[in-house]
Amino acid sequence: MPIDPLAWIDEELDSLAKQDLRRRLVTRVGPQAALTELDAWRGINFGSNDYLGLAADPRLAQAVADALPAEGWGGGASPLLTGHARLHGELEARLAEFEGTEAALVFSSGFAANAGTIAALVGQGDVVFTDRKNHASLLDGCRLSRADVRAYPHNDWQRLDRLMAKTAGNRRRLIVTDGLFSMDGDLAPLQRLADLAERHDAMLMVDEAHATGVFGPSGRGVAELDSVEDRVHVRVGTLSKAIGSIGGFVAGSRRLIDWLINRSRPYIFSTAPPAAVAAAALAALDILRDEPVRRHTLLDRANELRRALHESGWNTGPSASQIIPILLGSTRRALDLSAELRDQGLHVPPIRFPTVPKGEACLRISLCYSHTDEMIDQLLTVLRRAR
Ligand SMILES: *Cc1c(COP(=O)(O)O)cnc(C)c1O
Fold first, then answer.
1. Domain span at 118
2. Residue finishing a domain among 272, 290, 308
3. Residue 2 counted as domain residue
């Protein structure tokens, strides 16, 4: 019998299962909300990035429904051909206004925005400096660019300073960092990084995927919070987390956006998202502006939850945001605690290798505006008992 050339996959999957690293899809039934049905289970969902509770907001769904008769559904072509719809243009103008930049560009995902932007900014003979805890899409962008990639220890700006001094003479230089780190929930030292970018003639790119809509006086992210927006050359945000929709965007100078339109391969060689998707994001930006109570309440509750977890003896690492990891170390322990919580009606996903390094497994609590005080109390009660 001929050997199936894909037979090796079974062995690899078995090996993952033996290490407790095999993942399986769960299927959500119904909208992304605080109370969620996953497979045959129903309970409180602490595993989404729907930070402002907008994913299931009827105003977003209504905006899509209103746009559909005029726009149809499919994008049909790359934005450079015939895919760029009037609503995309409106959303880009609105994002530029929101971010206070000359221009903005909408991508079909935050992943595409990151990967496609880094690869357009640096190439062979250039150097890119990346935080070791940066999101996978930033790392993939670095690899894709074929620039010399220098990873620096998490948030260690002093090491970065030395690294940059040693690599003087490279053609173009780029520092890339998450604004708010997706697993630890801590913030990047953006003022320091902006200083280094200036001192060492580098571009600075900040991915605000988890901070857009949440941090800063107007919800623009950590760069706004730290008052360094003028010194961040490339700002990336996502429409798929706090904005409750789908897609990513880059905001910056007109020349930056023009360059991406000409050189960013995921932008050029991928079909434009449906125009109606832009209508949902526009509706969400209205809500963001009109209901700042969502982000204020969220961050207040996150501070309280972190404090209560510390008091019960849990280690939440460096978290300073709505992303609150419970550091556990062993994968087994993370899986067991997650299963225990699930039995008590609480979904808190375990995070393990390769999402985090081996031996650094955790549970990741993603707090959202839609979680009520009662839901958070329930989580705390079960976690106190499990300690
Ligand atoms: C989720 C995420 C992205 C990707 O955004 P999508 O719109 O989901 O593709 C990029 N960067 C960070 C830090 C993220 O957490």
1. 58-290
2. 290
3. no
What CATH number did the domain enclosing 105 receive?
A: 3.40.640.10
On whether the CB atoms of residues 276 and 64 are closer than 8 A, the answer is: yes
Q: Which of 153, 264, 160 has its CA nearest to residue 204?
A: 160
Do residue 140 and residue 77 come from a single domain? Answer: yes
Does the annotation mark 18 as catalytic? no
pLDDT tens-digit readout, 22-79: 999 999 999 999 999 999 999 999 999 999 999 999 999 999 999 999 999 999 999 9
Q: Indicate if 210 belongs to the active site.
A: yes
Q: Please check whether residues 244 and 300 belong to one and the same domain.
A: no
Whether 133 is in the pocket of ligand 1, judged by its Cβ within 6 Å, is no
Residue-wise DSSP of 295-322:
HHHHHHHHHHHHHHHHHTT---TT--SS
73: left (phi over 0), alpha (psi -120 to 50) or beta: alpha
Taking the whole predicted model, whether its pTM rises above 0.90 is answered as yes
Q: Is the CB of 43 under 6 A from ligand 1?
A: no
Domain count for the chain = 2
210 lines ligand 1 (CB under 6 A): yes
In one letter, which amino acid is 288?
L
Q: At what angle do helices 373-386 and 331-343 cross, to 10 degrees?
A: 130
Give the whole-angstrom CA distance, residue 83 versus residue 31: 28
Residues 30 and 167 placed together within one structural domain of the fold:
no
